[in-house]
């Protein structure tokens, strides 16, 4: 009986030491992956990295991690014209991550995630000069906000013969993703006074397409929807490179 008790104590101690060693190793590995991702993506700050699954040491020995979660704030995505657009709270879930011994290279079999493009940043990237939309009437894109039910509210500042109207013209627009572009298209066009507006002219102001390119590791846009703080994007990818 005493021998069994001693054996159980030894097993518990060894188990505790294994868990402690496993957690220490995963903490070190998370730091290494964060360093590699920061360098690979030229990030201004260290990303959040969480390696999921237990035990970690068996995954390490096999050269493949079950799941790695990465968080990046303030990522600067390319817009296709040499400028960038800020993307907040990018959260990516990587599955089946194969890596080299020093984490110099790491590739995930699949990845899914979400992020937010603040309305102010999207407006700044999309904004254009005022355009003529009718006889004596000009308009410019002036505001973007949540319109509810996944729609985006687009506001136009309208001037009539050089005098700006006291109230902005608002319309609800739908969002879609096509070829790495966020597309914003008005569901219905407004009527300003008794003037018949040419649809193509007003859509040249109200509708726009914004390229969102070169996301981390090669993940790509999947879906978009309006949310309270900005346009929420869903991303996905396969053979996604974390480092190397």
Characterize the structure shown.
Pfam families: LmeA (PF11209). This is DUF2993 domain-containing protein. This protein has 244 residues and is an alpha+beta fold. Helices cover 26% and strands 48% of the residues. The chain is built from four helices and 14 strands. It has helices at residues 2-41, 56-62, 119-126, 199-206; strands at 48-52, 64-72, 75-78, 84-99, 106-118, 131-134, 137-148, 151-160, 163-164, 169-178, 181-186, 208-211, 220-227, 230-243. The radius of gyration is 25 Å and the shape is elongated.
In brief, what are we looking at here?
The protein has 244 residues and is an alpha+beta fold. The protein starts with a helix and ends with a strand.
Report helical residue fraction: 25-40%
Order of helices and strands: HEHEEEEHEEEEEEHEEE
Name the poorly predicted regions. none
Beta-strand content bin: over 45%
What brief labels describe this structure?
alpha+beta; 244 residues; DUF2993 domain-containing protein; seven-stranded antiparallel beta sheet; DUF2993; 4 helices
């Amino acid at each position: 009986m005493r021998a069994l008790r001693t054996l159980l104590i030894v097993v518990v101690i060894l188990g505790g030491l294994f868990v402690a060693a496993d957690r220490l190793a995963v903490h070190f590995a998370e730091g290494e992956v964060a360093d590699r991702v920061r360098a690979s993506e030229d990030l201004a700050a260290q990303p959040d990295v969480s390696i999921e699954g237990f035990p970690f040491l068996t995954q390490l020995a096999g050269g493949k991690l079950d799941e790695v979660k990465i968080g990046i704030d303030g990522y600067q995505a390319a817009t296709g014209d040499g400028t960038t657009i800020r993307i907040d709270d990018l959260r990516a879930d990587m599955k089946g991550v194969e890596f080299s011994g020093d984490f110099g290279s790491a590739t995930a079999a699949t990845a899914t995630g979400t992020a937010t493009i603040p309305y102010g940043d999207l407006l700044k990237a999309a904004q254009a000069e005022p355009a003529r939309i009718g006889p004596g009437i000009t308009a410019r894109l002036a505001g973007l906000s949540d319109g509810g039910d996944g729609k985006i509210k687009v506001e136009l500042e309208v001037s009539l013969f050089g005098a700006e109207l006291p109230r902005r013209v608002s319309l609800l627009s739908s969002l879609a993703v096509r070829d790495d572009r966020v597309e914003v298209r008005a569901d219905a066009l407004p009527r300003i006074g008794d003037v018949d507006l040419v649809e193509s002219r007003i859509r040249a102001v109200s509708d726009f397409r914004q390229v969102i390119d070169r996301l981390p590791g090669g993940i790509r846009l999947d879906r978009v929807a309006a949310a309270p703080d900005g346009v929420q994007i869903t991303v996905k990818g396969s053979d996604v490179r974390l480092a190397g």
